Amino acid sequence: MTATDVEGTATDGIFEPLRFRHLTVKNRVFRSSVGGRLDYYDGSGSDARINWELKFARGGVGAIISSFCPVTIRGRIVPGFATIDRDERIPFWRELADRVHEHGCKFILQLSHSGRQQDIIGIEYNRSLSPTSKPESIHGLRADRMTIAQIKETVRAFADGARRARAAGLDGVETHSAHGYLISQFLSSAINDRKDEYGGSLENRARFLLEIVEAIRAEVGPDFLLQAKISATENNNALFPWEKKGNTLEESIQVCRWLEQAGVDALHVSAGSSFPHPHIPAGDFPVADASRVYGGMLSSGAYTLRNLLIFRTPGLNQLWRRWWRRSGPEHPEGAILSDARAIKDAVDIPVLCTGGFQTASVIRSAIERGDCDGVTIARPLVANNDLVNLFAQGHDRAPRPCTYCNRCLVNVIMHPIGCYEERRYETREEMVRQILSVFDRDVPPTNGDSRRAGGG
Fold first, then answer.
1. Cβ neighbours, 10 Å, residue 138
2. Are 377 and 386 in contact, with CB atoms under 8 Å apart?
3. What is the C-alpha separation between 19 and 294, in angstroms, rounded?
4. One digit per residue, pLDDT tens: the chain, 456 residues?
5. Among 170, 281, 338, 357, fewest CB within 10 Å belongs to which?
6. Does this model's pTM top 0.70?
7. Is the sign of the CA dihedral 431, 70, 386, 330 positive or negative?
8. 327: Cβ–Cβ under 8 A, 6 or more apart, which residues?
9. Which of 319, 455, 456, 444 lies closest to 50 in space, CA to CA?
10. Active-site residue 41, yes or no?
């Protein structure tokens, strides 16, 4: 299960550096995009955000992909996420990068826009923007159909976000073109119902993303990492069979070829046409937790009251839970690898794959087979921040692995990000202490006062 280096010494493929065109990452494990409402309402960053990211930098990951980072306030999922929507944000991201770099870890900013998939609407706007005015199918989240002028303004916002990321000393950016957010709303044959040059054919549906890539490259130059996250197979009808299936793997392979031609340095392969989706994050649906926190979304969508009643009604909630689990893969870990391999075979740039990874032998085998060049991990790293260090010590898995219960992701609607699986702790008090540890103030900043640097 190991590779051999040029001197004949056995090496672990997980810990071989991953080289992009203009960036080298020390190993093949990336912290995938995951985060919570750790920041200020106006989009400025906080000490808690820095402490959150430092958990994973200390834990041994080669690079961190930030949580969803809105390029405009109108494009955020919920208030309380640090944004990259103005130049005043640059000092905070510079502070965060400096702290992460102390641990030999790279930091990649995920440039994002919610589109219609906006869980909690802020006071600044009543609705977000989308290629369509149709509500999405799970929550009934609504948005205004974008005009051509708004499309061009949003392309510019992504490019400006990339410029600010480079100015902050970050190591690269990733376009969030997956999971039913704005870019994938344009890409998706199940969502995009436009009749103009941004809708219809695959070439037209990909136009928005390719214009963003072109604009970013023009702004930051050819030597700054730019990768794209894409849902290879949408499975838009996984929960509701009457819905359209959405993009196929073959369509996504073509989009990835276009992205490579446009100058993207790497591809990040995922799945699903929404978030959450039975395929991402695969696993359980914690209806008890949902019944407690989902009320915060009631005013956001047309179907939210229906959903809350389902989550709170005995019998119905268990039917929903079983249907959710049945609609996704039986085994979450590595379920997307076949799609990643198909894309990797079609391009000549590195391919990352996400999907429940937490076993060293599974990751190592995927890399050695050529399914992907590296993996990205979210939930198992939330459960075990030091997972990569455990791999380096010879563990195949953490002693208390992630259970894929998805309580971490449901609770972030109202509560701080963290592992909420009480069975993994000795006591509930221990769980609470671990979740709230991001608010500890015993980690000194590298350059001055990080709260001041956040532009609060």
1. 18
2. no
3. 42
4. 444 443 433 469 999 999 999 999 999 999 999 989 999 999 999 999 999 999 999 999 999 999 999 999 999 999 999 999 999 999 999 999 999 999 999 999 999 999 999 999 999 998 999 999 999 999 999 999 999 999 999 999 999 999 999 999 999 999 999 999 999 999 999 999 999 999 999 999 999 999 999 999 999 999 999 999 999 999 999 999 999 999 999 999 999 999 999 999 999 999 999 999 999 999 999 999 999 999 999 999 999 999 999 999 999 999 999 999 999 999 999 999 999 999 999 999 999 999 999 999 999 999 999 999 999 999 999 999 999 999 999 999 999 999 999 999 999 999 999 999 999 999 999 999 999 999 997 544 333 333 333 333
5. 338
6. yes
7. positive
8. 238, 239, 278
9. 444
10. no
Give CA torsion, residues 439, 441, 445, 451, to 10 deg: 60
Domain ranges of the chain: 3-281+330-401+426-453
Q: Which amino acid is located at 399 in the chain?
A: P
**199 contacts: CB under 8 Å, gap ≥ 6:** 131, 192, 193, 205
CA–CA distance, 47 with 157 (Å, rounded to integer)? 26
Please tell me the CATH superfamily of domain 3-281+330-401+426-453, with its number.
Answer: Aldolase class I (3.20.20.70)
